[in-house]
Specification:
The complex is a heterodimer. Chain A is an all-beta fold. Chain A has no helices and eleven strands. Chains A and B meet through strand 10 of A and strand 5, strand 6 and strand 11 of B.
Chain lengths: 113, 113
């Protein structure tokens, strides 16, 4: 595997379910990001991790819970989501948060029913 | 705060047509500017960048010039191909404070043969 991978690529879940999204980067980077991409809205930064420490949390509801166990892996744990949380969730990585070249994964298309 | 505004899409052109996608920004300091491209079913890829006024970024036949006087970073290509069909995102990264990308809403481009 190369670059940034995300699993699953598609996920359908009910509002009472608990699921997790996984991101893995094979680039040796030390910063990772979660973004939310909704139709007709700008890409929204959700969380930033640098050296496995969360350095930014953009007022994201607590039903989204990130986890970064090491510099190569990033998870987004989901519980009691709402239909408006349906979106494409993109993971990205970079070499330091001060560097601007972020490499993106293909995303997980999430549908909340 | 910082923001990026792109021309509304979708944009539909014929092959070999000239392309312009407008992008203007509002930012403090001296931001770096980027164009990202998202092909169907894939994550965002950095297309080109410019880090200071009057810089021209270029890649794959696309160009954009950092115009500080008009706070713009319009994307151009002289002759588009069907394979250029994608969603294009303009983004900025502030030179001060939070080291994060701010994206425009994206412009969907479709090129017909």
């Amino acid at each position: 595997e190369t670059g940034v991978t995300q699993t699953p690529r598609h996920l359908v879940m009910g509002m009472t379910n608990k699921k997790s999204l996984k991101c893995e980067q094979h680039l040796g980077h030390n910063a990772m990001y979660w973004y939310k991409q909704s139709a007709k809205k700008p890409l929204e930064l959700m969380f930033v991790y640098s050296l496995e420490e969360r350095v930014e949390n953009n007022s994201v509801p607590s039903r989204f819970s990130p986890e970064c166990p090491n510099s190569s892996h990033l998870f987004l744990h989901l519980h009691t989501l709402q239909p408006e949380d349906s979106a494409l969730y993109l993971c990205a990585s970079s070499q330091g948060t001060g560097f601007y070249e972020q490499y993106f994964g293909p995303g997980t298309r999430l549908t909340v029913t | 705060g910082n923001s990026v505004t792109q021309m509304e899409g979708p944009v539909t052109l014929s092959e070999e047509a000239f392309l312009t996608i407008n992008c203007t920004y509002t930012a403090t300091g001296y931001p770096s500017l980027f164009w990202y491209v998202q092909y169907p079913g894939e994550g965002l890829q950095l297309l080109l960048k410019a880090t200071k006024a009057d810089d021209k970024g270029s890649n794959k036949g696309f160009e954009a010039t950092y115009r500080k006087e008009t706070t713009s970073f319009h994307l151009e290509k002289g002759s588009v191909q069907v394979s250029d069909s994608a969603v294009y995102f303009c983004a900025l990264k502030d030179s001060q404070g939070a080291q994060k990308l701010v994206f425009g809403q994206g412009t969907r481009l479709t090129i017909n043969p």
